[in-house]
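Slide 14.
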Amino acid sequence: QVQLVESGGGLVQAGGSLRLSCAASGRTFSTYTMGWFRQASGKEREFVAAISWSGGNTYYNTYYADSVKGRFTISRDNAKNTVYLQMNSLKPEDTAVYYCAAGNVGVAYFTRRRYDYWGQGTQVTVSS
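Slide 15: predicted structure.
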């Protein structure tokens, strides 16, 4: 069982930055792919970014939605059981509740239903 708790959301002006954190419980954190999804008001939850598990290596694969590529960076610290989402050059359309997720998803890192564990979400609001 894995419990996820997000933090770091808030209100920021367009062009600004925020860093989201997701703290995970459980000893198998390093074996899960960790993902970030977001859900804007009235819209479906959508994939933002994911980072694969280490498999005993220090190299991770990262994946991004086209809408955030070049602006957002996902990273993980297995020693701290934490995954991060650094968000730069924020736009009003980035406004949403951001959710952290964990699972053994294989190559389906962008598929919401492949993730087994979810956090409660953190609100990000970008003003124009």
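Speaker note: The mean pLDDT is 93.
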